[in-house]
Design a protein that fits this description.
Number of domains: 2
Number of strands: 7
Shape: globular
Distance between the termini: 53 Å
CATH topology of the largest domain: Rossmann fold
Radius of gyration: 19 Å
Strand content: 5-15%
Structural class: alpha/beta
Number of helices: 10
CATH architecture of the largest domain: 3-Layer(aba) Sandwich
Amino acid sequence: MKLTGLNAIVTGSNQGLGLEIATAFVREGASVAICARDESKLGPAAEALRAIAAPGVRVHAQRCDVSDPAEVSRLVEEAIRALGSIQILVNNAGVYGPKGPSEMVDFDEWKRALEINIHGVFLPSRAIIPHLKAQGRGKIINLSGGGATAPLPFLSAYAASKAAVVRLTETLAEELRSHAIDVNAVAPGALNTRLLDEVLDAGPETVGAGFYEKALKQKESGGASLEVAASLCVWLASGESDGITGKLISAPWDPWKELAARREQLAKSDIYTLRRIVPEDRGEKW
């Protein structure tokens, strides 16, 4: 198993992709601390994980709002106490936020989406970094997505926050490179989770006809695989990906299983990063 003897915190893990990641980690031998704001689903999720856990693999569950510094500090402290140490952090918690034209959405809802999506990556990372530095190793995995790489009209809070997650990922990767702490972002693909249902419930008048039609087709097709996205997180959490850092990797589209062989190339390249495109990049001389 790829994660035997390792311990992880996975945020937003009482359902959907977060629970799928925690499940994959447990199956690969890792003990996990799961958290979410909705405590009613947290207990059943923890019991499901314990049911598949091998002897010695522990599961700790704790309610946490990842945008609240005090709650995040308690989460990290309790997770370390319960599991003994932490080597892996997966920042999965996230929301779409308000939907509709930017000039019409509620600003408090817009701001709240950024608090969850970007503060909720920064605060757990900030809290666990001293612990990882003390161990001389670690893995931080941040969930990003399509909102980071292309405009998303009528979902401005989600788009802005997910782009911020990738730039924070790249920045932390450089800060922590000398400490053998790898920091990467994952684009899981278009998943059929509660977020898709939110788009469909909002309707084409709110999210735009094109995005709504795309969501309908995704619902019908089954969407991207939760299992593939979780498998990428396992790979990034494991020793197989050591030294690969500061990248945004797509679970369904990138050849991530082969990237270990290109470790040195990736370290010297801006492949899988967000960069400004200048005319010369497109064959123009302006």
